[in-house]
Specification:
Elements: H1 4-12, E1 18-23, E2 28-33, H2 43-46, H3 51-54, H4 64-71, E3 75-83, E4 89-101, E5 104-114, H5 118-121, H6 148-160, E6 167-170, H7 177-186, E7 195-199, H8 205-213, E8 214-215, E9 226-227, H9 229-232, E10 237-241, H10 248-260, E11 262-264, E12 271-273, E13 277-282, H11 286-291, H12 297-303, E14 306-309, H13 319-335, E15 341-342, H14 344-352, H15 358-372, E16 377-378, H16 385-404, H17 414-432, H18 436-443, H19 447-456
Parallel strand pairs: 6-13, 6-14, 7-10, 10-13, 15-16
Antiparallel strand pairs: 1-2, 1-5, 3-4, 4-5, 8-9, 11-12
Helix pairs in contact: 13-15, 16-17, 17-18, 18-19
């Protein structure tokens, strides 16, 4: 459970040299160093040991991780000299944060920058990544569609872009909610200001609060005076993704900030006015989230003044053609390729598939095919194995269905149907593989048996 925090932490900070995640007792459950030249401990040396075993020179009082586990308060940019149980000495600047489950401390995350000189120590801090880098933002022209639902959605975006009302985007994971959020921003009079996006999933409440509202120096150990995302987005748009994953305690403070149009940095008493359009997104049914206690009802009504619903890809199969061509064009430019399109067999598989991962899954499938294809068209052999299996299953079902309606045909026989089906499976296996050994492995028969059947059926 604790490992889910690692990706968010790595995305939050620049220049991390090492990261450790412990449970509530200080036993390490995740460890990674990006500087093995400085820290020679390996994952196998660390997992399952307590932090005080790994660094025997530390105590309950000198270890930042043990103090955070005891107090629940984060510690930022604290210098520590660490002596490992293998005798190596490491000097590091550490930021340590508690992992909370409601009011209960269930673990801690510790991120490090290694220090190689006293001079360097004075200048090293673990900095949060800039949330607003200069980058390309999507516009309405980037929403490729032939779907009536999506056409209406684009029209609604044009209508509401310049209003000050909050917008809630509902839709399954991978449907393109951030694309819509960015299009709302770029279609508005706020487009010359910042668009700032924050995924709220699984970030501890105290860390998310400091990210959103900012801090003042001295508000907690190592805290510096920093603006939060509400301030950075002033005059522009703040996109809060996966709000149903945000802890309830933070939801109340966001509601207050939206209603009062002002925020207070952590540790400060001064209110700061902010002018921000709030766009948020949820990947579950909002009413279910309210019933399950994942989303405050009052916050939902405040965020959903205007509600947009993203249809899943399976509900707009007509868009497969436009999206596939758009992704092929994109990866041709990125990878310097000249892929023309997909062949008919791949098109049939795409049309038969339900795409539970939606547009993001389709894009990943196209990108994966670009890495392995050696022809001008993406073919079935270039697809991930799970898609090929789904295609084969559909073909088998179609075959059985076809044969079932031919029972009254005087030429029908069980032996003939089994023979035709076996021939079809062998051809499929041969088409998907490079040699007989691989084909036999797919069919779960020996190479000798495969040779016999190919001769028997004159394949």
């Amino acid at each position: 459970m604790l490992r889910r925090y690692v990706e968010q932490i790595l995305n939050l900070y620049n220049y991390i040299d090492g990261i450790m995640v412990s449970d509530a007792r200080g036993v390490i459950e995740y460890y990674q160093t990006f500087r093995p030249d400085v820290n020679q401990l390996k994952e196998s040396d660390v997992i399952g040991k307590s932090v005080l075993e790994i660094y025997p020179n530390l105590t309950e009082e000198t270890s930042s991780m043990m103090r955070v586990l005891r107090t629940g308060k984060p510690i930022s940019n604290e210098f520590q000299t660490l002596s490992t149980f293998k005798g190596q000495s490491i000097r590091a600047v550490n930021t340590t944060m508690p992992i909370m489950d409601g009011d209960r401390i269930v673990g801690a995350v510790d991120v490090s920058r290694y220090v190689e000189s006293d001079y360097e120590r004075k200048h090293i801090t673990l900095e949060l990544k800039e949330k607003q880098a200069e980058r390309y933002l999507y516009t309405l022209d980037d929403i490729f569609t032939a779907s009536q639902q999506m056409m209406l959605l684009k029209e609604r975006i044009r209508m509401i872009a310049d209003t000050e009302s909050s917008v809630l985007i509902c839709g399954e994971t991978g449907t393109g909610k951030e694309l819509v959020a960015q299009s709302l921003h770029t279609s508005s009079h706020r487009s010359h200001k910042r668009f700032i996006s924050q995924n709220c999933a699984s970030i501890p409440a105290n860390l998310l609060e400091s990210i959103l509202f900012g801090t003042v120096k001295g508000s907690y150990t190592g805290a510096e005076t920093r603006p939060g995302l509400f301030e950075l987005a002033d005059g522009g748009t703040l996109f809060l993704d996966e709000i149903n994953s945000m802890e309830i305690s933070v939801q109340a403070k966001i509601l207050k900030a939206i209603e009062e149009k002002q925020i207070t940095r952590i540790g400060d008493i001064k209110s700061i006015p902010v002018d921000v359009k709030i766009v948020s997104a949820i990947n579950q049914n909002p009413m279910d989230c309210i019933r399950e206690g994942k989303l405050r009802e009052d916050l939902f009504y405040r965020l959903s003044v205007v509600q947009l619903t993203m249809p899943p890809l399976r509900a707009r199969h007509n868009d497969l053609y436009f999206l596939t061509n758009a992704f092929i064009k994109e990866f041709n430019e990125k990878m310097h390729r000249n892929i023309i399109g997909i062949d008919e067999e791949v098109q049939k598989i795409f049309e038969q598939y339900d795409w539970p991962g939606n547009v993001r899954e389709l894009k990943n499938v196209i990108e994966g095919a670009f890495n392995v294809t050696d022809s001008g068209f993406i073919q079935k052999r270039d697809l991930p194995e799970y898609l090929v299996h789904i295609g084969m299953k559909h073909q088998r079902n179609e075959f059985v269905k076809k044969e079932s309606v031919d029972f009254n045909d005087p030429t029908f026989s069980l032996d003939g149907a089994v023979k035709a089906y076996e021939m079809q499976l062998i051809r499929e296996a041969l088409n998907q593989t490079k040699n007989l050994t691989e084909a036999a492995r797919k069919l779960r028969i020996s190479k000798q048996t495969l040779n016999y059947k190919m001769n028997k059926y004159d394949l």
